[in-house]
């Protein structure tokens, strides 16, 4: 009985891990996000789509210390580049 319970708990744990890793990887699977990643590499930009040597207050442009909110990296890039240069 203990072995069966242990197996069930392992299966549930793996399922939870799978969902967690999918939510981390899923945004990169988006076709537009793939284009953004290619554009960043091709143009030698930093991970935020800005010039490689750009410095940010607080170390990241994704965190707003006034509101305490964090912006998704792809949302930040899309807002900063409304002309979508990755589509050209």
Automatic annotation (TrEMBL):
It comes from the Bacteria. This is Uncharacterized protein. It comes from Berkelbacteria bacterium GW2011_GWB1_38_5.
């Amino acid at each position: 009985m203990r072995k069966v319970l242990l197996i069930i708990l392992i299966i549930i744990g793996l399922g939870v891990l799978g969902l967690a890793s999918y939510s981390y990887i899923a945004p990169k699977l988006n076709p537009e996000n793939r284009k953004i990643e290619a554009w960043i590499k091709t143009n030698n930009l930093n991970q935020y789509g800005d010039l490689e040597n750009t410095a940010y207050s607080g170390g990241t442009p994704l965190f707003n210390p006034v509101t305490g909110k964090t912006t998704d990296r792809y949302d930040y890039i899309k807002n900063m580049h409304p002309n979508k240069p990755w589509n050209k």
